[in-house]
Specification:
By secondary structure, the chain is mainly α. 73% of the residues lie in helices and 0% in strands. Helix 5 packs antiparallel against helix 6 and helix 7 packs antiparallel against helix 8. The chain is globular.
Length: 183
């Protein structure tokens, strides 16, 4: 029975990750020039959104990697954070945990309480899911998902508040822990 719960849980997390990511980047697709400026970020996010909707995670990574490095070279923190977190999320979907860790560790020093709430939300979501899928660390995942919930609540993001609560409740469900009923 536990195996069935864990399989359902992982499937639910993947569905929720797609939902969260779609909410995270709500733009129409456009072509982009390849230069690295925060002003072009909307165009990149639009392309990332299309790739995500179509499940083209490898294409997302391939097209974003250059932008990520150019952002770092140009000291464009906003573009660097968005591209790094976006690639981490794609690698999460591709089941490549070492790459998730590499890009999350790269962006971590640049995260602050003043970072855009959408980036903070996604950063914590990826960290939480990584904690579950790679480390099987439920308490750490709960901490990250609680941060997601707090950020979503503070920014008035109802959809992602629900997604965070679903992740929290599912962890308690898999653990057969009644404390989850409080959520």
């Amino acid at each position: 029975m536990i195996e069935r719960k864990q399989i359902l849980f992982c499937r639910t997390l993947m569905i929720q990750s797609l939902f969260l990511f779609a909410v995270f980047i709500p733009f129409e697709a456009e072509a982009f020039s390849g230069r690295c400026y925060t002003a072009e970020l909307d165009s990149f996010r639009a392309v990332w959104n299309e790739y995500n909707k179509e499940g083209r995670y490898t294409d997302l990574v391939d097209d974003t990697r250059e932008y990520f490095h150019a952002s770092l070279d140009n000291k464009d923190t906003t573009a660097f954070l968005y591209s790094g977190i976006t690639m981490s999320m794609a690698f999460l979907s591709l089941e490549e945990p070492d790459s998730v860790s590499k890009y999350m560790d790269a962006v971590s020093p640049f995260m602050s309480v003043n970072t855009d709430p959408r980036m903070l939300l996604t950063y914590n979501f990826v960290r939480g899911t990584y904690s579950l899928k790679r480390d099987y660390n439920d308490p750490l995942a709960l901490d990250y998902y609680q941060k997601c919930y707090d950020i979503a609540e503070k920014s008035g993001d109802v959809d992602n508040s629900i997604a965070a609560l679903l992740n929290i409740v599912h962890i308690y469900y898999v653990r057969s822990d009644k404390r989850g009923l409080g959520y």
